[in-house]
Design brief:
alpha/beta, Isopropylmalate Dehydrogenase, ten-stranded mixed β-sheet, two-stranded antiparallel ribbon, 12 strands, globular, binds nicotinamide-adenine-dinucleotide, binds manganese (II) ion
Amino acid sequence: MKKYQIALIPGDGIGKEVIPECAEVLKALEKRYTKISFDFQEFDWGGDYYRKHGVMMPNDGLNDLKNKDAILFGSAGDPEIADHITLWGLRLKICQGFDQYANVRPTRILPGIQTPLRKCEPHQLDWVIVRENSEGEYSGVGGRAHQGLPIEVATDMSILTRVGVERVQRFAFKLAQSRPRKHLTVITKSNAQRHGMVMWDEIAVQIAKEFPDVTWDKELVDAATARMINRPESIDTVVATNLHGDILTDLAAALAGSLGIAPTGNIDPERRYPSMFEPIHGSAFDIMGKGLANPIGTFWSAVMMLEHLGEQDAAKKLMGAIETVTSNSALHTRDLGGIAMMKDVTKAVIQEIQK
Ligand code: NAD
Ligand code: MN
């Protein structure tokens, strides 16, 4: 019997709705696979915690998480609190504190889901985008001076280190090697950003030599957006810096049908710390508290968590259940053009698991 210690951090907005649904789904898997069990500990961190304590999570909160096997996260973002406070105070504090340097985002068009792409068969879009998750444009280095004066100045410095670039590119090449196509696209912008991105390109040439069986190409980030739309089948695995990856993965999610479906893992490949799994969407203020949220992105994130824990059978079972449910348009939530409620989707996924 393997007992996994899982931290649940619902956070804010629809995060507080989808995470409990996901815990129910995992409980159903536990009943079915008697060799696995989950020990959940929930943390009430986020906007409400901030209103009470002035911080999004306790300063020593990472101590409570560091011995967990994995973290399931909902969303950070509150209508009354500035976004940079909610993001840096919770999600980034965990990602950076646990050096989860690879943000992994698979994108596929699930059965029954319509892509906005006119010329794309579902099998032609099967990507995994690896976003650098610890430095680059979001390193947090910069500052403001002379605030409010006409001479005000503000900077956000993008920092790329050789160690940081080598490790994320090596992770991406390895991931590409494990996939049938064995192809990696390295996203760059070295024509305009002539220091850090040039080093990024040079390191790609160097790391590629370690993976002679992986083919690779290089694409400027702006051209990459057009390629994702016009030639989706030419892409397989992708690696990009923090900002570039952030934007490309939202585009990928939209091309796969909805932001409500897309999952992600913030991975520490060396497994020194727990990795964190979350839907890519945010708090969705416009639909929170209404039971309309699509929980599929969270369930798919749980599939990634199970794979990371080495529970391949349970992961396959859950992914199969998700795909059976998406194939049925009566079970589509509003973001997919349907009328189903979040709870209908959860119930159907649990029924599939029990079959
Ligand atoms: P959002 O993802 O919250 O919402 C964008 C749109 O997509 C909205 O119309 C929303 O209703 C819809 N949507 C998102 N997820 C959905 C789901 N599961 N089911 C159905 N519809 C869904 O993005 P936003 O509006 O830019 O951000 C709102 C807040 O969330 C902000 O505070 C932002 O900082 C935060 N945010 C947090 C994260 C995170 O914690 N990882 C990610 C993105 C945004
Ligand atoms: Mn984003």
